[in-house]
Automatic annotation (TrEMBL):
This is Threonine synthase. SUPFAM superfamilies: Tryptophan synthase beta subunit-like PLP-dependent enzymes. Its EC number is 4.2.3.1. CDD domains: Thr-synth_1. InterPro entries: Rhodanese-like_dom, Ser/Thr_Dehydratase, Ser/Thr_deHydtase_PyrdxlP-BS, Thr_synthase-like, Thr_Synthase_bac/arc, TrpB-like_PALP, TrpB-like_PALP_sf. GO terms for molecular function: L-serine ammonia-lyase activity; pyridoxal phosphate binding; threonine deaminase activity; threonine synthase activity. It holds the Pfam family PALP. Residues 77-143 form the Rhodanese domain. Pyridoxal 5'-phosphate binds at N84, G184, N185, A186, G187, N188, T314. Belongs to the threonine synthase family. It comes from Acanthopleuribacter pedis. GO terms for biological process: isoleucine biosynthetic process; L-serine catabolic process; L-threonine catabolic process; threonine biosynthetic process. The modification N6-(pyridoxal phosphate)lysine is found at K58.
């Protein structure tokens, strides 16, 4: 199976001169969610972006951004990141044989993401500041020095991420009534909406979905209508106070007749736990916010019979093992003894 540039070439700004830097990203599972369907009364599906090569949807944009950077002769790429953008940039830059520089907010990047970048050989700069400050710095550096910016303000990132929408329509065989997803820097909601519109215009999708976006309550600038100076949430991937694609996210919401709402960390963590324990699907905390959002909407009788909902699970649970472990009780050590283990389990012998 070829990567997404090959599969959706006619919808992407590439030519025969573009060197395709690919890790065979995309084509991720669209998993039916029976438990969530029961709870909400809608047909719920999970688009499992954790199955991408570096474990998040960022690979969709990065295959485009790095391919175009190499086409333009770039010898280095740079990004600000809450973690997953840097993991993707580091992998695609390594594949292309070019340098990668990442700026991350000090102490706020999940362990799995940091470990990916560490092994890749990218230059990691920890900044005493938040994501928004890191983004301002990489904008300055890329404007003044010969290094290509691969954050989602790079239009090729959005182009690549549009393919998530194409895949959903292709996999379902129809356009879902609703799409639910996290909103951080707001590139992804921008890309999905652009993707649905492009597929619709090409006659490949019969209609457009309604977009449901969710921000963490401690990092909800779009919901509050003002920049959050010190964003705070357990969902580090969306710990962003001044989204670069703010206006485009509002346009996606308004044009689709949708909404962008805030979700408390507690509800987000409950959805994160439910996904693992009831659906068998392990995602990172930020990814669960769309599920928390539709569960709350369902309580308000938002969904009607026959509605379908796709939740974008943006990243793999293995990215953030530390948050998962906060749900675990201390694991007891037992003797390597069959009868003793049976007794511990409360088993009663048969016959
Ligand atoms: C980047 C990221 C987000 C936020 O996406 P935006 O395009 O910044 O809104 C959400 N979840 C995960 C896992 C991410 O890596």
């Amino acid at each position: 199976m070829a990567g997404l540039i090959e599969r959706y070439r006619e919808f992407l700004p590439v030519s025969d001169a573009t060197p395709i830097i690919s890790l065979e990203e995309g084509n991720t599972p669209l998993i039916p969610a029976p438990h969530l369907s029961k709870l909400t009364g809608a047909r719920v599906f999970l688009k499992y972006e954790g199955a991408n090569p570096t474990g998040s949807f960022k690979d969709r944009g990065m295959t485009m951004a790095v391919s175009k950077a190499v086409e333009d002769g770039a010898k280095a790429v740079i990004c600000a990141s809450t973690g997953n953008t840097s993991a993707a940039a580091a992998a695609y830059a390594a594949r292309a044989g070019i340098k990668c520089i990442v700026l991350i907010p000090e102490g706020k990047v999940a362990l799995g993401k940091l470990s990916q970048v560490a092994l890749s050989g990218a230059d990691i700069l920890q900044i005493n500041g938040n994501f928004d400050e890191c983004l301002n710095m990489v904008r300055y550096l890329s404007e003044n020095y010969p290094v290509a910016l691969v954050n989602s303000v790079n239009p090729y990132r959005i182009e690549g991420q549009k393919t998530g929408a194409f895949e959903i329509v292709d996999q379902l065989g129809y356009t879902p009534t609703y799409q639910a997803m996290p909103v951080g820097n707001a590139g992804n909601i921008t890309a999905y909406w652009a993707g649905y519109k492009a597929y619709h215009a090409a006659g490949k999708a019969e209609r457009l979905p309604t977009m449901l976006g969710f921000q963490a309550a401690g990092a909800a600038p779009i919901v509050n209508g003002q920049v959050v100076e010190a964003p705070e949430t357990v969902a580090t991937a969306i710990r962003i106070g001044n989204p670069a694609s703010w206006k485009q996210a509002e346009a996606a919401r308004d044009e689709s007749g949708g909404l962008i709402q805030a979700i408390e960390d507690e509800a987000l963590l409950e959805a994160y736990h439910l996904l693992s324990s009831k659906e068998g699907v392990f995602c990172e905390p930020a990814s669960a916010i769309g599920v928390a959002g539709i569960l709350r909407l369902a309580k308000q009788n938002f969904f009607k019979e026959g509605d379908s909902v796709v939740c974008i699970l943006t990243g793999n649970g293995l990215k953030d093992p530390q948050t998962a472990m906060t749900f675990s009780e201390e694991v007891q050590v037992l003797a390597a003894d069959g009868p003793a283990v049976a007794e511990h389990l409360g088993f009663v012998a048969v016959g």
